[in-house]
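Now read the record:
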Amino acid sequence: MYLTQSTDLALRALMLLGAGDRRRSAADLAGSLHVAPQHMAKIVQRLRGHGLVKTSRGRGGGVVLAGGVLALPVGEIVRALEGPGEAVDCDHPPCPLRGGCRLRGALRTAQEAFLAALDQVRLSELVTDPPEPVLLSLALPASAAAPPPQEGP
């Protein structure tokens, strides 16, 4: 199973927001995650639409986690972002094996197991030690972030 790039970036944005205690702009999140600001703006709007973040405009505005989001299971967040789709589409184009095929059921079972495993992890677990210092360093402006360690000669 795999996540769409949009869901992957949305989870990473939620992690960044969860590790800090300040508002972040969509452009700031985009810079930290090395994606186009327009793409991150769309992701933030999806997150807002699902009630996972709150946004505000103007001076002092930005994006923050909605209340209670850190306590959510990651599987629940992924279900919201990915929607109810199945791992395989047997209708487009129509599969000639559909009547007697067992692949669809096997893939559905695998998808449910994938999401069940993600249900065992809460978003808060993804932002606390040891990832927290790394996430917080991404939250700093590029000029304030610590330089990467230098390797010996």
